[in-house]
Amino acid sequence: MGAGDGRTAAVSLWIVAGLALSYLTLLAAKAFLALHVARRETRAPASTGAGVTIAQPILSGDPRLASVLAENLRELPDAQFLWLVDEDDPVAQTVGRELAARHPDVRIDVQVCPPPPEGINPKLWKLDLARPAIREAVLLVLDDDTRMPAATLGALLHALEDHQLATSLPGYLDDGRSPSRLLAQFVDNNAALLYLPLLPFLPPPTINGMAYALRTAFLDQLGGFAPLLRSLTDDLAVAEQVLAAGGRIFQSARPHWVETTVRDGRHYVQLMHRWFLFALLLLRKQRLGLRVLISVLGALPSLLLGALLVAAGLAWSVPAAGVLLGCLALRACGLVALQRILYGRALHAPFSSLLSELGQPLHLLHAVVWRRIIWRTRHYRVYDDRRFETVR
To answer: Are 346 and 339 in contact (CB under 8 A)?
Structure first.
C-alpha cells in the first residue's frame, strides 16, 4: 500500500469512527433524557378501573381481538367498558357479546354504531356517539389492540390531578413472525426515545392515540369529540383541542401493551406508511424549531446508522469492521438496558431492530410521495389533516 492509499484508508476510518461516535452520542443523549423523565415521575397505586369508563372503538379482522379485550376485563374489572362496533361488522358484535356473557360481573356495553359520513374520522365518530353512555368521571380511550396494565392506569389517574389529559408509552408485543417483529422493533426502539426526551424542554406536542385518559367534565368543556370529527389524525386533534383550551398534557413513561397481528410484509408496509404519513401531518403543524428538534430525534439516527454501514462497507478493513461491530453492540446494549428500566423487560431483537431502523428513511420517502393510506378495511386519499376522502 502506497502513502496515498494509507492516507485514504486513515481518512475513511476516521469517517467511520465519526459516524459511529455521532450515532452513539445521540442515542446516549436521548436515553439519558428519557430516563431522567421516567425517574422523576411519581409512583402511584395501581387501579382496577373504579371510576373509569373505557371506550374502545372496535373493528374485527385481528385474530387476537378477543384475547386482548378479555385481558383488559381481567386487569380492570371495576371499569365500565364501552365497546363501539360497526353495524356492518357482525364479527365484532359477536366477539363483544360473547365476552360480555362470559364476564357478567363486569359492566360491558356493546354499542352498535352507524357508518360515518364521508370525510369523518371513523374512530372519533364512534367516540362522539358514545358520549351519552359514559357513566364515570374519567374516560380512558383505548384502541382495540391495546392492553392497559393496572399500574399504568393508576399513573394516568394520578396525573389527572393536575393535568387535563394523560397518555402512556406504547410497547409492542410481537407474535414471533418477521413482519410483526419488524413493527414491534420500530415502536419499542423509538417510542421512549422520541416521546420522552422532549419533555424537559417542551410540553408534549401530541399524544399517543392508542391510550389516553381525561376527565369527562373536561371533555364536555371541549364540546366532546364533535368539533374534531373531520380530523384524520385523531390523536393530534385531541391534543390540539386540549392545549387550545389551556389544558396540560402529561406523558407518562409507564407502558401500555399493543398486540397487533401483522399478516405479512405488505400489511407491515401499509401500517408503517400510515404512521409516517400521520407523522408528516404532525410536523407540518409545528413551529420550525420544533420540526427540527423532532427530526433530529426521530430521523437523524437512522440516517447516521445507514451512512455508517455504507462508509464501513466502502472502507472495509479490520479496524473499520471493529468500529462498526462495536457501535452495533453498544446500540443493542443501550436499548436493552433502557427497555428493562422502562418496560420491565427486554424487547430487543437484534437483527429485526437493525433492519427496522435502516428502513425508516424508505418509509418516510413512501409517505412523502404516496398520499393514499389503508386503515383496516378503509382506503383514504389524504390531502391534509382535515381533508381526506374514501377511495374504495
So the answer is: yes
Q: Maximum Cα–Cα distance for the chain, whole Å?
A: 82
Residue 137 DSSP code: S
Amino acid at 290: L
Asked if the model's pLDDT at residue 146 lies above 80, the reply is: yes
DSSP state of 60: -
**Is pLDDT above 90 for 226?**
yes
Cell 425517574, residue? 39
User: What is the spatial distance between Cα 273 and Cα 324, in angstroms, rounded to a whole number?
Assistant: 29
| pLDDT (average), residues 373-382 | 80
Specify the pLDDT at position 7. 62
Distances (CA, A) of 82 to 53, 100, 140, 282: 7, 11, 10, 29
Reported confidence tier of residue 4, pLDDT bands at 50, 70, 90 = low
Q: Which helix (H) or strand (E) holds 319?
A: helix 318-343
Cα 301 to chain centroid distance, Å, stands at 18
Looking at the DSSP assignment, which residues form a beta bridge with residue 139?
A: 53, 214
Could you tell me where the DSSP H helices lie in 196-287? 216-221, 234-244, 265-284
Angle at the Cα of 128 (from 127 to 131), degrees rounded to 5? 90
Enter the C-alpha cell of residue 35: 430516563
| pLDDT (0 to 100) of residue 153 | 99
What nine digits make up the cell of 202?
Answer: 417542551
86/82 Cα distance (integer angstroms): 13
Map out the domains of the chain with their CATH numbers.
9-38+289-390 (no CATH), 44-274 (3.90.550.10)
Could you report the per-residue pLDDT of 15-56, keeping only the tens digit for each? 999 999 999 999 999 999 999 999 999 999 999 999 999 999
Q: What's the pLDDT score for residue 387?
A: 78
Chain centroid, CA 302 distance in Å: 18
Confidence at 161, pLDDT banded by 50, 70, 90: very high
Which residue type, as a one-letter code, is found at position 213? A
Q: CB under 8 Å, gap of 24 or more: what pairs does 318-326 form?
A: 319/13, 320/12, 320/13, 320/16, 323/13, 323/16, 323/17, 323/20, 324/16, 324/20, 326/20
